Amino acid sequence: MLSGRLKKGALAIGLVGAPAVGLAAWFGWLPSMATDRAVSALERRLGANVTIEDASLRWSGVVFEDLRIEGEEGGLSIHAGEVGVRGGLWAMANEGASAVEYVQVRELSVEVDLANGGAESMRSLVNRTRSDSDAQSQSGAAANPSSRVAEATGRVLVQDEDGHLASSRFEMRYEGGELRGSGTEGEIGVAPSDVMEAERWSVLIRGRQIAEVESDNVALQVGSESGTTLRRLRDALDRIRQSGEQTETQENQEVPGWMARLADGAVVRVGDFSAKREGRDLLEGLSTTITRANTELHLEGEGGVQGGQAAWDLWVAPSEAKGRGTLRASGLPFDLFLPFLPELPWWRPEQGRVDADLTMRAEELGQIAIDGSAAVTDIGLSSPRIAPSPVAGLGMEFEGKAVWFASERRLAIEEAKLRRGQAEVNLQGDLERTSEHYRASLQATMPATNCNAVVGALPRALLADAGDFEWEGRLGGRLTFEVDSRNLDDTELRIRMANACEFLSVPITADLRRVRAPFIHRVLEPDGTTFEMTAGPGSPNWSPVVSMSPFLVQAIVGHEDAGFFRHSGFAVYAIRDSLVRNLEEGRYVTGASTITMQLAKNLFLHREKTIARKLQEVILTWWLESALSKEEILELYLNVIEYGPGIYGIVNAAEHYFGREPSELSPAESAFLACVLPNPKAYHESYERGTLTRRMRNRVERFLRHQHSRNRIDEEALNFAIQELQDFRFARPGEHPGERQVPGSTAPLPWSTGRMSDWGPEEDPYGESFGDSEEGSEGT
């Protein structure tokens, strides 16, 4: 009886105790065993320090709480509030990770500190995960990866030595061999560097290749330290990719490694992209798509760019450095292109606008063929070397074909048309500039064009009153220009003009009727004072050119403008020589003013040396050559230019230096007056000392010998002049030397023979430069 009762008690205990023992094991040592196995597996696979605070078993899996992973090198901290793992318990216990069906991670936080070992820890984690995945794939342990699903939500934060670098909230899902991630509140950088924020982003990765990337409402703020964030990102990637990735075999040898990471057919889309710099809109509403098509990338997009619009459709083969496509722009701000342009004193470049319709093709490495049209409007320049005030409203239209050779930094212009207003210039040639040299080889042709249209193409701000001239007729021409900084002596400049223009009306400031009778000649001196004297025919300060010493006329013309009687106001050879000298010096040291140009600025212009004054001088020279004879121009010139401080006109100069009339000047005296013209105030030093300085004596003697070599004075005149220099004397105030006989003679003057051809060839520069760095006489 007792025995039966004992058996029944044992059975009852067994029926009740077995589940109790099972429950005790389930909630006691089994979770602890699961935690230990999970920690051991993660540390072995990740090469990191792993801790799990707690675990609880479910009928369908296990939930780990407070999971922490710390990189072995430091600087990497991964924390998950809760990790749920679904799968058969006994299968997971026996088969490990291969039995896992589903993983869900909540409250995931990833923090990377690149300044304290984070790059090394990330690199180690990525390499271990990749090699483990490869091993499983090769062994068949992961025979059915499509059955696994993993999901995670959380936030990532990356920082470096400069502090915050990047952060974002994210959601990730892995299924069927695909990893899809998306996120919000993405941010890269921190002020005052560049800061980029994305409202939404997503990425799809198949295997190890990127299949899709999308991002919307991306905003970029360009700060005062522009480019800093890009540098930090590049440095961060370089740190993480120092090993493993750089030696990874490319999946496709026909494309570069970075492109191989994009799957064939992969699409990268950025929508509603905007950028600001210091509060000003740079880009807005811009959308772009990049698609990989085999070995090419297709880039297309459109959007607002600093108040303008741009659209592009480009195909690029990076491995072959080839490409093709179109680029269209409307109303783009000019300052967007400043980094690619020469450094000029641009004025308010943000107001300028650029329109373009270009087709581009790159068939060879480093060569881009460009065909199309472009227009630049409303740009400006501001510099005291250009004009006293900013020159605004500049612009030009371009149309043509060119090839850019990147390695040579050379632009080969096959054909181009440059238009401004109704004026057009056809251009061909090469432009080249490297860090070591520059070179230009250009041919420009202007077809016969209405004269008013030609001058009207020049900015009014540069022309001032000279813009009030009016013409009838047409003007055309051709220019050839060759220069190479490696051999400036071979510089070539040729200009040929077909001028059929006739002046119809003249601004009152250029009315020459005032100089045909006594007039007041006013000069604004460098110190701001104004000099005045009465000049003009019939005044006591006037001498007819036919009454002047022929030695004087020969000396002044020979020194200042040897081709005066042959050119039409402009000496191309002098412009070429002046350009070479200025390029050799690397600064402005000399001009190429003819006598007519000097007269134009003496009569009508101020002293400032600007591009504006030079343009005005050109038009006024054109006018003087049209309205006056060479004899009249030379007569005006000699009677108004400066020969010393407060000494204007040849009558006053002859009296001041030598106590004589212009008709009485000797060869040496005439040569001295010619030699002071480049800088009459400075060269007055000899007069103040009472004798020629050694430098001036040598200068005058060289010039006299030069005159003789050009047959402007005969040998008797030369010998007399050399003798004069031995005891060269200046007259003191009130002193009037007596009469004298001056032996020798000069070549015939044009008005004495009536033939300009007697004067010699136009290109008759005097060889060794006797002028200083100034352009010549600088009265008004």
In words, what does this structure look like?
The structure is a single chain. The chain is α+β, with helices and mostly antiparallel strands and 780 residues long. The strands form 4 sheets. It has a 22-stranded mixed sheet. The chain is elongated and about 135 Å long. It starts with a helix and ends in a 27-residue tail after the last helix.
Give a nutshell description of this structure.
This protein has 780 residues and is α+β, with helices and mostly antiparallel strands. Helices cover 28% and strands 37% of the residues.
Number of helices: 19
Fraction of residues in H or I helices: 25-40%
Task: Give me the Rg, rounded.
Answer: 43 Å
- The total of beta strands comes to 28
Mean pLDDT across the residues is 83
State the end-to-end distance: 145 Å
Sheet having the most strands: 22 strands, mixed
What global shape is seen? elongated
Q: Uncertain spans, ≥5 residues at pLDDT below 50?
A: 1-27, 243-252, 756-780
How does the helix and strand content classify structurally? alpha+beta
Strand content: 35-45%
Helices, strands, pairings?
Elements: H1 2-27, H2 29-46, E1 48-58, E2 61-71, E3 76-86, H3 89-95, E4 102-113, H4 118-139, E5 149-160, E6 163-175, E7 178-188, E8 195-206, E9 209-222, H5 228-240, H6 257-260, E10 262-277, E11 280-293, E12 296-305, E13 308-317, E14 322-333, E15 353-364, E16 367-381, E17 391-405, E18 410-420, E19 423-433, E20 438-450, H7 451-456, H8 460-463, E21 470-472, E22 474-484, E23 492-499, E24 502-505, E25 519-524, E26 530-535, H9 550-560, H10 572-585, H11 595-604, H12 611-627, H13 630-640, E27 642-644, E28 647-648, H14 650-658, H15 667-676, H16 685-689, H17 694-709, H18 715-726, H19 750-753
Parallel strand pairs: 4-5, 9-10
Antiparallel strand pairs: 1-2, 2-3, 3-4, 5-6, 6-7, 7-8, 8-9, 10-11, 11-12, 12-13, 13-14, 14-15, 15-16, 16-17, 17-18, 18-19, 19-20, 20-22, 21-24, 22-23, 25-26, 27-28
